[in-house]
Amino acid sequence: MFKEMGRTNQAVLVILYVLRTVKAFEMEIIPAERIVAQIGGTLILTCNATGCASPSFSWRTQMDSPLGGKVSNHRTHSTLTMNPVSIVNSHSYLCTVICDERQIKEKSVKVELYSFPSDPIIEISPSLVAGEPATKDEHVIHEKDFFEDDSTNTETKIVTYTFQPMAEDIGKEITCVARLPIADMDFEPKERTSSQKLNANFGPQNTAITASPGNSPMEGDSLNLTCVTQSNPPAQIVWSKYLAEESIQHLIKNNVLSIPHVHFNDSGRYICEVINLVTNKTEKATVDIIVQGTTLLEF
Predict the structure, then answer these.
(1) Both ends of the chain: CA-CA distance in Å?
(2) CB-based contacts of 194: which residues, under 8 Å, 6+ apart?
(3) Considering the entire predicted model, what is its pTM?
(4) What are phi and psi of 11, to 5 degrees?
(5) What is the pLDDT of residue 18?
(6) Which of 3, 116, 192, 274 has the greatest count of CB atoms below 10 A from its CB?
(7) pLDDT for 179 beyond 90
(8) For residue 186, what are the CA distances in angstroms to 67, 155, 177, 243?
(9) CATH for 203-289?
(10) CATH entry, 26-114, from 2.160.10.10, 3.40.50.1820, 2.60.40.10, 3.50.50.60
(11) Contacts of 207 (CB under 8 A, 6+ apart)
């Protein structure tokens, strides 16, 4: 009796095992339901079938538009490859699977597109000149939205801003932030940023000459004339001297004019001319030098 019961239990277990190994016909699309793709990229949709020995696959758009991709069928799955993704791929794609010419299953996936391929580019006008109007791309003190633009074409958006840079703006960082705030779309990044340090050209300005040891050196002493100016980029400095007949004698191109041993004929008016070759601006400073002679005492 116990032997018979043991055989019966074993038979039941075998039947249950067989039932559990039989899979029903099912299908799925990967990614499921919704996918966000970037224009210019590659998108692969995969339609899988299980529980069917020889499934038959077909793809179409729900609007019966061209697929805009390449279909590749395999034994248990089919792929639809879009490379590159373009605006024509903005559809809901339907995969149909037929099993044994009797069972049919369908699922769809919605493809939504965006284009945000690179960081913004900051372009500064040929040269920023302090105190003069200039333009640069969108930055943190200026903002423009394109929400009203319903175009589905990929476009390059350009925003310009005019401001007057000052000398103290040199070294400051300007930042351009571009955002793509599309609601309910899961993609990254939704924000791209570029930064650039500002290098405003200015000057020359506040040009002055200092004489060491002074404007009235003794004959035989050394004399250093130093020309100081503010300029970006650094200015070119040219020294010259007025002659008696009101002509000009050009000397050296350096910020320091050094005379190791001055003589009486070194007296006169010295001119420091500074030239900013970028801004094409010039400024001058002058200094009068009178060389003193040694006085001899008579007894």
Answers:
(1) 160
(2) 119, 120, 121, 122, 175, 176
(3) 0.53
(4) -65, -40
(5) 46
(6) 274
(7) no
(8) 23, 21, 20, 78
(9) 2.60.40.10
(10) 2.60.40.10
(11) 227, 228, 229, 272, 274, 283, 284, 285
